[in-house]
Amino acid sequence: MNSHILRASLISFAALAVSVSVFAKEPIDPIAPVKDINLAQVELGKKLYFDPRLSKSGFISCNSCHNLSMGGTDNLKTSIGHKWQQGPINSPTVLNSSMNIAQFWDGRAKDLKEQAGGPIANPGEMAFTHDLAIDVLESIPEYVNEFKLVFDRDEINIDDVTQAIAEFEKTLVTPNSPFDQWLMGDKDALTANEKAGYKLFKESGCIACHNGPAVGGSSFQKMGIVEPYQSKNKAEGLSAVTGKDADRFKFKVPTLRNIEMTYPYFHDGEAETLTEAVDVMGRLQLGKKYTEDENAQIVAFLKTLTGDQPSFTLPILPPSTDKTPMPTPFE
Q1: Where is this region: Disordered (predicted)?
Q2: pLDDT tens digits, one per residue of 11-43
Q3: Fold of 10-33+175-305
Q4: Neighbours of 199 (CB within 10 A)
Q5: What value does the CA radius of gyration of the chain take, rounded to a whole number of Å?
Q6: Residue 225 region, left (φ>0) first, then alpha (ψ -120 to 50), else beta?
Q7: Stretch 238-242: mean pLDDT, rounded?
Q8: What is the mean predicted confidence (pLDDT) over 241-258?
Q9: pLDDT at 240 over 70
């Protein structure tokens, strides 16, 4: 073997060994690249994700509440739906959502595909019906042709629509954050202050719920363990799905990936800043009152979880035709 190649191979192996030794003992894992993706479905799903014609108003798309230019959220306390209706709950980020144990704060959708169909038919969100959404798509020849090419059948159905949207959403992962770089062996990727914040994050017990590659999203926990959480929001959490009183105010633990971009925080959006969110979670969940310096250190660590968001050309949507049902935004 060429000596240069051998040396490069040994260096690569050594780097890998260091990477494994660093993050193997940590409760947080680096985000891995996307695997097993159907690219044809992704491209179709990307169009559907941005297409407002899947709403009654012809104005609201998936991207309206999960804006990919704003951390996959809308940065509002609660989202705005059809005819300016106030949504019942804060819009969680779509970034890294494929890592969640379930979708929505209360887990009522088991996966991204099931979630994708919900807002379309929700009268408070996109306010359409699945049948009408299919009528719109079938009136547009370019969509008809693309669905046939992608799914190899003549008709368009809501199952294929949600499958394509979900496949696109699977690509919305954010690897290569400074923290991931540190996990994989770059000792200079974090400052001393950020490392201190991570140490405090672990020692305080935050890591019990916020762990794994998504730094959360893998369990349901009660909001307000040490102290009750006071909220005007009527959301009951997991109990709305299970019917069990023991599940009241249990919500899916949110991912902390890209958390500096996904304000305001909590299911009711009441915490406007990370500083406020850290203070509330420390007191209510852990029984700990952080000092100003401790809070700032944890916030500094949390900001290292912002990774590289996928970048792509905005999809150009196929034009409507004379047969396309007109939107009714004011009805």
Answers
A1: 312-331
A2: 343 444 444 444 558 999 999 989 899 999 999
A3: Cytochrome Bc1 Complex; Chain D, domain 2 (1.10.760)
A4: 13
A5: 22
A6: alpha
A7: 97
A8: 97
A9: yes
For every residue of 163-230, DSSP letters joined together read HHHHHHHHT------HHHHHHTT-TTSS-HHHHHHHHHHHHHTGGGTS-TTTTS-S-EEES-SSSPPP
Nearest Cα neighbor of 70 from 172, 217, 218, 212 is 172
Whole-angstrom distance, CA of residue 64 vs CA of residue 58: 12
Give CB contacts under 8 A, 24+ apart, made by 280-285: 280/229, 281/206, 282/204, 283/226, 283/227, 284/223, 284/224, 284/225, 284/226, 284/227, 284/228, 284/229, 285/209, 285/221, 285/224, 285/225, 285/226
Q: Which residue's entry shows tokens 């999960």? A: 66
Query: What pairs with residue 86 in β-bridges?
Result: 80
Arithmetic mean of pLDDT, 266-281:
98
Residue 267 assigned as binding residue: no
Q: What residues pair up with 265 in beta bridges, in sequence order?
A: 271
- Across 151-165, b (16+ Cβ under 10 Å) vs e yields beeeebebebbbbbb
Reply yes or no on whether the pLDDT at 2 is more than 80.
no
- What six digits make up the tokens of 231? 């909220």
Confidence bin at 299 (pLDDT 50/70/90): very high
Catalytic residues: 125
Q: Domain residues of the chain, as ranges?
A: 10-33+175-305, 39-170
Instruction: Judge whether 82 is annotated as a binding position.
Output: yes
Question: Is 4 labeled as ligand-binding?
Answer: no
Assess whether pLDDT exceeds 50 at residue 311: yes
Task: Decide if pLDDT at 188 tops 60.
Answer: yes
CATH number of 39-170: 1.10.760.10
- Find out whether 210 is annotated in a ligand binding site: yes
pLDDT recorded at residue 24: 53
